[in-house]
Design a protein that fits this description.
The protein has 217 residues and is of the alpha/beta class. 32% of the residues lie in helices and 26% in strands. The strands form two sheets. The protein has a seven-stranded mixed sheet, sandwiched between helices. The protein has a three-stranded antiparallel sheet with strand order 8-9-10.
C-alpha cells in the first residue's frame, strides 16, 4: 500500500518534525515526508530534514511583502509539486488565510500545546498554571479558519505538579507532543480517523470510537 505523503511546515527548531522523521523511519509506518517547507531559511528544522535526506524548500514571507495570497500560492505550488497529501503544521509561525485552509480542508493538521478548546493561542503553559487546572496537555486537530479550531484527532494529558513553572510543564507537554503527533498521523494514514461534521471518529476494526485523551500508542 502506498504511504501517505506528508508536507511539514516549520519556522524554527523542528522538534515535532524530528518526531515525525523518526516515526517515518520505521518500515511499518504508513506515511513518509515528501517535503519540509519553512518560511525562514535559517530554521534549524531544515538541517534536521537535510540530515534525513528529506527534500526541503524555503518560501519566505519576506519575499512577498504585503502579498499574503502570493506567499501562500508559492507554498501551495511547492507542496503540490512534491505530491503532498497531508500538511502537518509543526511550529509554523504564520497565520494561514481562510482560502489556504479551505483549499486543504481535511488535509491540514496542527499540534497545539493545550487540551483544546482550552487555552487557544500563545503562552498556554503559563495560562494553564494561572487558572489552577490539574491537567494540561496537547491536541492534534484538523485546521479550520478560526485560530486553533477544528475537529480533534487525538489528545494527550499530563498532570500539573506542585512547584511547576511554565518551563517545567512545557517540557512535559512537549514530550507528549512527540508521541502524539506520529500517533495521529498514523490514524489518518491508515484511514481510521474520519471527519464527521465537527468531530473525528476513530475507527478500530468494526468499532467506531471517539478520540480520547491519552489514546493507546
Amino acid at each position: 500500500m502506498p504511504k501517505l505523503k506528508l508536507g511539514v511546515l516549520i519556522s524554527g527548531r523542528g522538534s515535532n518534525l524530528q518526531a515525525l522523521i523518526d516515526a517515518c523511519a520505521a518500515p511499518d509506518f504508513p506515511a513518509e515526508i515528501a517535503l519540509v517547507l519553512s518560511n525562514k531559511a535559517d530554521a534549524f528544522g531544515l538541517e534536521r530534514a537535510g540530515r534525513a535526506g528529506i527534500p526541503t524548500a524555503v518560501v519566505s514571507h519576506r519575499d512577498h511583502p504585503g502579498d499574503k495570497p502570493g506567499f501562500e500560492a508559492a507554498m501551495d505550488a511547492a507542496l503540490r509539486g512534491a505530491g503532498v497529501e497531508l500538511i502537518c503544521l509543526a511550529g509554523f509561525m504564520r497565520i494561514l488565510s481562510e482560502g489556504f485552509v479551505e483549499r486543504w480542508r481535511d488535509k491540514l493538521i496542527n499540534i497545539h500545546p493545550s487540551l483544546l478548546p482550552s487555552f487557544k493561542g500563545l503562552d498556554t503553559h503559563a495560562r494553564a498554571l494561572a487558572t489552577g487546572v490539574r491537567f494540561h496537555g496537547c491536541t492534534v486537530h484538523f485546521v479550520r479558519p478560526a485560530m486553533d479550531d477544528g475537529p480533534i484527532v487525538a489528545q494527550a494529558a499530563v498532570p500539573v505538579l506542585p512547584g511547576d513553572d511554565a518551563h517545567a510543564l512545557g517540557d512535559r507537554v512537549l514530550e507528549s507532543e512527540h508521541a502524539l503527533y506520529p500517533h495521529a498521523v498514523r490514524l489518518i494514514a491508515e484511514g481510521r480517523a474520519r471527519v464527521d461534521g465537527d468531530v473525528v471518529r476513530i475507527e478500530n476494526g468494526a468499532t467506531v470510537l471517539e478520540s480520547t485523551i491519552n489514546p493507546p500508542l
